[in-house]
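Structure record:
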Amino acid sequence: MHRTIEARRTARDRIWQSMRILRRFSLPDLVATAEAGDNNCLKYTKGLTEAGIVRLIKAKESGKKGGHAQWALARDLGPKSPRLRADGTTFDPNSGAVLTESLRRSPPEGGQS
C-alpha cells in the first residue's frame, strides 16, 4: 500500500499563498484566508514589505470603519514562501537568492549614495 505524505504547510506558507491569490489584501483578509494569527500575519507582511516583495498601498485609518491598512503583492516570487531570517535578510527558496541584503545595499534612486 502506497501512501503519499504531504509536507505540513506552515502558517507563513498559507499567508504567502493568500497574498499570491488575493494580490491586494488587509490583515483581516490574511487572517481569514490563511487561518493564521494577527501577529504572525503582521510580522510576515512587514518583513516582506522591507524586502520589497509587498508594498503598502493604503495606511491604516484608526477609528474609521474599514480603515485597515492595505497591501499589494509587488513581486510574486513563486509558490514557495519567502523566509524571513533572524539576521534581517529574506530568503527566496524559489530562486535561492537572499533579497533584503541586496536591497539595503542598493543606492537610492537617482544614483546618489
Remarks:
- The chain has four helices and six strands.
